[in-house]
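Thread: adenosine-5'-diphosphate complex, take 2
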Amino acid sequence: MRLTVEGVAFSYGSSPILDGVTFSADSGEILGIIGPNGSGKTTLLKCINRILSPVQGEILLDSESLRGMRPRDRARLLGYVPQNAVSEFSAPTVYEVVMMGRAPREAGWRSGAEDERIAWEAMADMGVDSLASRPFNRISSGQSQRVLIARAMAQEASVLLLDEPTSNLDVRYQIEVMDIVRRLSREKGVGVCAVLHDMDTAMRYCDKLIMLEGGRIAAAGDTADVLTPENILETYGVGVAIDNSYGRPHVIIL
Ligand code: ADP
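Output below.
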């Protein structure tokens, strides 16, 4: 499945936030969205997920526009992990939040044994199965981030939209979560679009990147071609070098 974003523009009131954003991401590929604070990364994910309606442009899954799709059908195809979602979920327990990932199946849906198996497997993969009966609003931000990724995994969507999936996680979970995201992409063919603020994480896990600056794409392409000292200086105003001495490239801030 291919996600195509074509000429997307968005404004909050009269302030233009995104302009002419065009890219595509394929199944089995991790596309990273990077750029300075306020460059429009979260807004872009929300436009793709139709939480916000672009004022211009088209978003397609294969050849089908998301615009006319019923929310239930869209939810089956697109999984979204927002940045701070604690207040968006009223379900009392971790298990129920993850089970909500199974809910956009059909009208009158009730969970069955297969749904339960999938929910438990997703919780185990994210290391939150021991929290299953805990109230969702009384776990740490790192734990709730992993619960929401488990929910998106339980959804078995074709494309995952992740907004800074590792921002609240300690270093061990950062690696575990990104390893699982990579496994979903490689083994299950899930397409991944992830907003990442850490350039090393982007370097290590992303196949392709788009770099946003002021709502426009400043650079796009293979990760190594986008995360260059020239592009980072231009977009972030920070001098860096790329160090290859540990067997894989790292971004060193000068
Ligand atoms: P990023 O994710 O790259 O940090 P955002 O997409 O969150 O950027 O924000 C892009 C711009 O839109 C910022 O200038 C931000 O202040 C503005 N913005 C975000 N949310 C709103 C909102 N609800 N109303 C008005 N402006 C907003």
